[in-house]
Design a protein that fits this description.
There is one protein chain. The protein is mainly alpha-helical. The chain contains eight helices and no strands. The chain has one domain.
Length: about 190
């Protein structure tokens, strides 16, 4: 999501200062993706798509509610993020304080919304494929944010020109990591 489509860059750049907070946010984003993408798939398939309501009545075969998909996806994501925020606050107050505003901002993280929209665009055929896609996307996001956090921790001890310190060098490293990870897009499994 980050290196191929540059989705989720706001929290990626802001929270990736330490590995601990990056790992916490990465796990939270992965959890939200694994829950919301399959739920949004089911909502899309059985409620919103053209002809999806035939299971209720054959008279509803012409109903197409797909124009509501964006609103429904956002509602599901917001609800799951609220649950994650409450759980993290209850069980790990230090992580909750370290993540600050970026934990509730998972709800507007475009990587999470992108997961649901990519799922819809790619037309996966069953819930298993959708869940694997969500898990893979989440793990990829987690690896990316933890990787950049580890690099940023090491860079604290490097002689970086003052103009590039902080976000400047992070942009350069993200671009290089993006080039490196784009090589995996050519692999056909």
């Amino acid at each position: 999501m980050i290196f191929a489509f540059f989705l989720g860059m706001c929290s990626y750049l802001a929270v990736s200062k330490t590995v601990k907070t990056s790992l916490g946010l990465g796990v939270a984003v992965t959890f939200v993706l694994v829950i919301t993408v399959p739920v949004n798939y089911l909502i899309d398939k059985y409620l919103l798509s053209a002809g999806a309501l035939t299971w209720l009545s054959p008279k509803l075969a012409d109903v197409d509610l797909s124009f509501l998909s964006l609103i429904m996806f956002i509602a599901v994501i917001a609800a799951i993020v609220q649950i994650v925020e409450m759980v993290v606050e209850k069980f790990s107050p230090s992580l909750y304080n370290a993540l600050g505003i970026f934990l509730p901002l998972i709800a507007v993280n475009c990587a999470v919304m992108g997961g649901s929209l990519f799922m819809q665009q790619r037309g996966y055929s069953n819930i298993g494929e959708v869940t694997c896609f969500a898990l893979g996307s989440g793990i990829g996001w987690l690896i990316a944010i933890v990787g950049i956090a580890a690099i940023r921790e090491k860079l604290r001890y490097s002689a970086i020109p003052p103009a590039l310190r902080g976000v400047g060098i992070t942009f350069i490293i993200t671009g290089l990591m993006g080039i490196a990870f784009m090589s995996f897009m050519g692999i056909k499994l």
